[in-house]
Description:
The complex is a heterodimer of chains A (505) and B (321).
Chain A: H1 2-28, E1 32-37, H2 52-61, E2 66-68, E3 74-76, E4 79-86, E5 89-94, H3 108-120, H4 125-128, E6 131-138, E7 141-146, H5 153-156, H6 167-173, E8 187-193, E9 197-202, E10 215-220, H7 224-232, E11 238-240, H8 247-252, E12 256-271, H9 281-290, H10 293-300, E13 305-307, H11 330-339, E14 346-353, H12 356-370, E15 374-381, H13 383-392, E16 397-403, H14 409-417, H15 434-445, H16 449-466, E17 469-482, E18 485-486, E19 502-503
Parallel strand pairs in A: 1-10, 1-11, 14-15, 14-16
Antiparallel strand pairs in A: 2-3, 4-5, 5-7, 6-7, 8-9, 9-10, 11-17, 12-16, 12-17, 13-17, 18-19
Helix pairs in contact in A: 9-11, 10-12, 14-15, 15-16
Chain B: H1 2-11, H2 13-42, H3 47-52, H4 58-67, H5 74-86, H6 100-135, H7 140-154, H8 157-171, H9 184-213, H10 216-223, H11 228-258, H12 260-265, H13 271-281, H14 284-312, H15 314-317
Amino acid sequence: MKYSAKTAIAVALTALLAGCGGQEETAQVRDTLIVAQGADAKTLDPHATNDQPSARVAAQIYNQLLTIDADMNVIPDLAVSWESVDANTTVFKLRQGVKFHNGEELKASDVKFTLDRMIDSPTVAHIAGTIKTVDVIDDYTIKITTHQPFGPLLYHLTHTASSILSEKAVTEAGDNYGQQPVGTGPYKFADWAAGDSISLTVNGEYFDGVQEIPNVTFRNIIEGTNRTIALETGEVDVAYDIEPIDKDTVRNHENLQLLEGESLSINYFGFNTRKKPFGDVRVRQAIGYAVNSQDIIDAVVMGSGIPTNSSISTRVFGHSPEAYKYSQDYEKARQLMVEAGYADGFKTTIWTNDNPVRVQIAQVLQAQLRKINIDMAIEVVEWGAFLDGISRGEHDTYLFGWVTVTGDADYGLYPLYHSSAHGGAGNRSFYTDTKMDQMLDAARESVNVEERKALYSDIQIQLQKELPHYPIYVGIQNVGLKKDVKGFQLSPAGHHKLKGVDFES
Amino acid sequence: MEYHLLLLSDRYPMYRFILKRLFLLLPVLLGVSLLVFAIMSFTPGDPAQLILGESAPAEAVAELREEMGLNDPFIVRYASFVGNAITGDLGRSYSTGREVFGEIASRFPNTLTLATLGVLIAIVIGVPVGIISATRQYSLIDSSSMVVALLGVSMPNFWLGLMLILVFSVNLGWLPSGGFSDWSSVILPALTLGTGSAAIITRMTRSSMLEVIRQDYIRTARAKGVAENVVINRHALKNALIPVITVIGLQFGYLLGGAVLTETVYSWPGVGRMMVDAIRQKDTPTVLGTVVFLAAAFSLVNLAVDILYGFIDPRIKSQYK
């Protein structure tokens, strides 16, 4: 027994010494940008998933036909120009001489292959929108035809799910493509230690200039606090999604900096308009005047949110500053309750999943509504059961979120408010209004930018009057980085591109 | 090969015992998988919806359900799982599209490393401290080690993990705070895991030892003038070890599958966390694969413990049937 104990101690000590040696070596060489995020990518096949951690890695490997700049404008990427032939047809000219990571040249046939594959994938077909056919005109020209005029098409083509794949690479890899992706992007896939990290190496033939940093590693650090710790200890250069409680630590640290920006996500308080008393617009408005978003933002997410007047973030195309912004006014709220016949208030419930942020929001709302005699019980429901229940309309009110992933108002408003989208499709308030349906349809089908903007403005103004949802806040996203990491730009969609990032020498 | 083994089993009861136990593993695994499959199928929550996220249209969810075969009857789905599992195909994960077997195989070495090192640390601390406490019952060293052991048992792993990170990574900067880069990264998680087990092993060793040293044959040995360290190490320890080994085996089995909190705190890419992530995602193939795999590992560890008894106590060996 004594013998084995000694051996074990010896092994442990040797391991300790060997380990410490190894750490020093890696600290000296600075050829790798280490990025920490809260979950491992699921797959790097853009057609097989729609989750943020995967998109954040895929964004370095792939390009799309078009992309979005920091101001949310659509700009060329693999397509250098495009032209609307008619309301249903757009022709794209491809960049010439672009090489995939496997050495193949990008051709129009790859684009057709990619978009056809996308339409066939149940996971991302909805992001392809109403694309009907994709035709190759010549090696560098492609024609996209939609079923009906589709205003948001260009935005949909900027989504990471619309990344252009190499036909040869996908066909060769078969079912394993998600673990051996091939794109045209600034970094190419190198290695994947499942559950731990993904390594990328620089693409020496990148069409838009070769990156300065030779390697990028995405590390999976689940606990938010541990991401901050890894930044502090210097184990990582960049950490996504710093916890609200750790933000000051990063801000005040001499070697670290915090970037913050408005995201495309919103959190809202929804009312089941099919149930009494939420069918009455006065009750919904009364709640609008009883709620104080800023209190929620300060108390629950420590300032990581912005009170809003719309279900879409100001970064989304079509956001309207004209829509009414509610502010707390108990007098008005009580008066509206009296008018609706609920002077003595009523009892109701709010559904939320077990996400602690949402549970705390529900608690603040509960306290705020008590002031106008609404006695709201909180029902915390497991995520799967929660989605099922609110899609079937079992709830009175509920807390939910939405991310306008395409950056276009259509994706943020149509599913939430069109009567064809009741239930699981997005309209979990079961809001029904023929005029709203017509406006949403018109805005979707218009290909005129100004006309769409005007329509979405009207829609948002009307929605704030009707208030099927009370939009609580737009999320603020953040990234913590070492001060010597230069050139990092936040993407409002959250999948930040590392192109142009460099270490300060 | 099989014939050879059977022949062996006639001559050596030990082999027959092992074979029998291995055969018994089959109904265990079948039962476990049926139970898990039923739970995954009949609890609320739609895997297709969870994969697509909350901003996905209903048609997409319905289409994905169909493609995943979720609309087939329960029996059909379970039968096809078992049929494939027999050929070693545990299916592909709903969420990552990877082969479940391959992913378990790539993560299991991490889990095994962590659990082995954790148990080693626990043994190295637990057994000697337990012996010393028992031989000096009610002394200062006994009382203080029991207090420490009580602390060790009561301390939650995630808290201890964070404290160790704070001291050794943030303040001293000696060890990485998580991930799996090189050997230095296993030390903190193994210490975190080992502490709780060490406390349990200490308490077990102490009480088992106390029982043994009160027996007549120990008194006889002492009366014969055998040196105290020989009495303890040769006569007492061997008999006291049986329950301790049982506990060590159970702890090892537990660490293989139950190290989820430690794996989460240290972002350790192990099988336990893979299982919990999969449960959240309702990723049935991965949940089934990991649970069946961990159940098998747990059973095998117990089998190994049973075999080990025989080596320590020949009386047990003679009872193998």
